[in-house]
Design a protein that fits this description.
By secondary structure, the chain is an alpha/beta fold. The protein has 6 helices and 7 strands. The structure holds zinc ion. Zinc ion (ZN) binds next to loops.
Length: 158
C-alpha cells in the first residue's frame, strides 16, 4: 500500500507515537480538541479506533478496529492488515510530537542546541520545522531500532 496515512482515536496514543516512528503521517484526535476522529479523516486517511460502536457503525474499508491492549500487537495488526513492508516505511523521518517531516540541518547550526557530547560525536542532524526539536541517529532508542528490525528487517539508521 502506497503511503498510508492515519487518524487515530484518543485512547491509542502509544500507537500514534509508533506510527510516527515508522514515518507515517498520523493525526491524533487528542491534538484537535474540537474535532472527533471522523472530522480528521478524509477519504484516504485510515481510521484506527478501539471503540466498538464506531467499529460497528462504520464498516468503511478505511477503518481498522484495533483489538489488542498491547501496543506491539496493535502495531502488528495495522502492519498486517495493510500488508505494509519494509519499502513502505521511513523510520525516524517524522517529528514524534508534531507529525511534521523532519529536515536536514547542518552541524554548525545546532552547536548550542544539543548537549556537547552529542555535538562532538554525531555528524548528522535533523530538525522539526514546527517545534524546532533536534533529532540525531542516537536520539531514537535502541528499543525502537530493535523493534523495527524485528518487524521489517535491517534498516539504515538515519
Ligand atoms: Zn515537532
Amino acid at each position: 500500500m502506497m503511503n498510508p496515512c492515519f487518524a487515530v482515536e484518543k485512547t491509542l496514543g502509544k500507537l500514534v507515537k509508533w506510527l510516527r516512528i515508522l514515518g507515517f503521517d498520523t493525526l491524533y484526535e487528542q491534538d484537535f480538541p474540537n474535532s472527533c476522529i471522523f472530522d480528521l479523516a478524509d477519504s484516504r486517511r485510515i481510521l484506527l479506533t478501539r471503540t466498538h460502536s464506531v467499529g460497528k457503525q462504520k464498516s468503511s474499508p478505511n477503518l481498522i478496529f484495533i483489538t489488542s491492549d498491547n501496543i506491539f500487537e496493535q502495531l502488528k495488526q495495522v502492519i498486517k492488515t495493510l500488508a505494509l513492508e519494509k519499502t513502505d516505511i521511513r523510520p525516524f523521518s517524522r517529528c514524534l510530537r508534531c507529525n511534521r517531516a523532519i529536515e536536514a540541518i547542518d552541524k554548525e547550526s545546532v552547536r548550542y542546541r544539543v548537549p556537547d557530547y552529542i555535538w562532538e560525536t554525531q555528524n548528522s542532524f535533523r530538525f522539526c520545522p514546527k517545534c524546532r526539536k533536534i533529532y540525531w541517529p542516537g536520539s531514537h532508542t535502541q528499543r525502537s531500532m530493535r523493534l523495527i528490525k524485528e518487524m521489517f528487517g535491517p534498516q539504515k539508521s538515519f
